[in-house]
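Subject: Sanity check before I submit

Could someone independently write out the structure tokens for this chain? I want to compare against mine line by line before I put it in a report. The sequence has 213 residues.
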Amino acid sequence: MRKAIALSILALAGSAGSAFAATGGSILSLGVFQGVGDYAGPELGSGYISAFDHSELGVGAEYWYMFADDYALAIQGAIGFFSETNEPGENAVGGPEAKFSTSSFKLRVGGDRVGQIGERFTWFMGPGVEFWSGKATFEEFFGSGEVETESTTRIGVNGRVGGIMKLSDSVGIQGQVGHTLGYATAEEAGAKATWYPSSFNASWGLAFSFGGN
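---
Independent answer below. Compare away.
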């Protein structure tokens, strides 16, 4: 019985022939990203800046090169953004409409272990190194018009797991979740903040397979 179960698991692991992309092939994914941005400031004459984080949405792309049936080089890039509008209420004393927004970009390079579950699902999991940079803008929050923070730089280690649901031999739906542990730094008017942020991220989109043996 145990032998039969083991053989069934191996069968589910699939063969290279049913892979979404075989050795020498590549996968391009285009999709929507969700993550956390890390920011600091503004300084506003206090002599200090303080760190804060905020959720953000984004769009991006990822490229896998299958240098083996079960290993891939993965390169990912994305731009992130967030926008919030605050309208004054009845108790506001002539206050104007206030706005808060963020913008960022990230680049990730890593490697994935890739495998098959049945004939129509490809899973992947692996580590990567991530570079992220972003800034925030405040309008009418501090009584001084528009205030833009200096850019924050974050370097981190990212791990993720995901999969591709095969729709055809060359098109699939890709989704993934991951976690980033990093080192962030920002500086403005001589004031500096450094911290070690930790956050979760996710994405989903369409994946396209090209070439391969």
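---
OP: Matches mine. For the report I'm noting this point. The chain has one domain: 24-210.
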